[in-house]
Amino acid sequence: MKKQKNRLADLLKLVLFIGIGLFFIYWSFHKMDPEDMKYFVASFLDARWVPVALAMVVAIVSHLVRALRWQLLFKPMGIKPSLVNTFGSVVVAYMANLAFPRLGEVMRCGTLRTSEKIPLEKSLGTVVTERIIDVFAFALVVLLGLLLAFNTLKDWLYNALLTKVESLPSLAAVVGAGVVLLVLLLVVYRIFKQQLDEKPIVKKIKQLFVSFADGLKSILHLGPLNTLLFVFYSILIYVLYILGGYIIFGAFAETQGLPFMAAFILYLFGSVGMAVSQGGIGAYPYLVQQSLNIYLVPDPVGLACGWMLWGSQQVVNIVLGMVFMIYFSMKKKSIPQSY
Which of 239, 311, 295 has the alpha carbon at shortest distance from 262? Predict the structure, then answer.
């Protein structure tokens, strides 16, 4: 019964995420008049394909770096999966996640089990560690991006709310208010600790921090050199994500010359799109459009840029995913299934 409820919940989430994506697609194009639609189509068709191809290469390199990082987590177990198989498992996971949430993690471990005979529970443990670290790494990237782009975002938000507010707070005021709020929350927690500890949401938050601490410990057990490599790969993954957006700017005349910070903001907005709809469909291009609107890029061009970046990434994931699905299928037939 519990399993059926979980499946129903996953199905409802999938329907919800797809519905959100379809809404963003409708909303993006519904607002366009015929001239804007012509502008969008022309921008898409006239895009320079060399930057698009380079952005696709960067996406592939980011998957490769993720595979290299994943290999490190197997070292304390004395397991050395090949780079070809770990890379293949990563791209299969990206393709699978387009179809169904969290399916990628299962297929990622399953393909490695087929190709490397690594028990499922061991590879799942490394994936959980990766996800925990990625959540906190992403939070740090978002925080860094907000700090670096604060003035730009503040000016954009001020213009958007010009008729509703007279001024917006400075960075120092926002940080100060955040510190005060954090102190107040800690004081409230200390006073009502016993009652709050019984709340499910508090238990989940505490478990999240415990899981992060466990994940951090497992990384520190890699040894000094491998720990540094893990951190380096983690930073490089996010640099490559942002670099892909920066490169795609060269595909459109209106986005050429935008600063690297614009790509940083694009990544922040786009990440929200990837989270709120299935595979980012609809939401990712729309939010990329909104991020480029900060730099006065015309909406049709911003939307074309968003669809170009999202589409090129998905082409990489689907093509490579299909290639390695065939590869793992052939591998499964050629290896005696004795486990």
Answer: 295
> Alpha-carbon distance 139 to 151, whole Å?
20
Query: What one-letter code names the amino acid at 55?
Result: A
Report the 3 state secondary structure along the chain: CHHHHHHHHHHHHHHHHHHHHHHHHHHHHHCCCHHHHHHHHHHHHCCCHHHHHHHHHHHHHHHHHHHHHHHHHHHHHCCCCCHHHHHHHHHHHHHHHHHCCCHHHHHHHHHHHHHHCCCHHHHHHHHHHHHHHHHHHHHHHHHHHHHHCHHHHHHHHHHHCCCCCCCCCCHHHHHHHHHHHHHHHHHHHHHCHHHHCCCHHHHHHHHHHHHHHHHHHHHHCCCHHHHHHHHHHHHHHHHHHHHHHHHHHHHCCCCCCCCHHHHHHHHHHHHHHHHHCHHHCCHHHHHHHHHHHCCCCCHHHHHHHHHHHHHHHHHHHHHHHHHHHHHHHHHHHHCCCCC
Measure Cα distances from 271 to 37, 168, 263, 276, 285 in Å.
25, 25, 12, 9, 11
User: Tokens 């899981």 correspond to what residue?
Assistant: 211
Alpha-carbon separation of residue 233 from 9, 13, 230 (angstroms): 34, 32, 5
Residue 16 tokens, joined: 């919800």
Residue 238: CB partners within 8 Å, gap ≥ 6? Answer: 137, 138, 141, 267
Per-residue pLDDT tens over the stretch 272-330: 888 888 788 889 999 999 999 989 899 999 999 999 999 999 999 999 999 999 998 88
The 10s digit of each residue's pLDDT in 100-120 is: 767 788 888 888 888 888 887
Question: How sure is the predictor about 247, in pLDDT bands with cuts at 50, 70 and 90?
Answer: very high
What integer pLDDT is reported at residue 329 of this predicted model? Answer: 86
Exposed / middle / buried, residue 227 (Cβ in 10 Å: 0-12, 13-18, 19+): middle
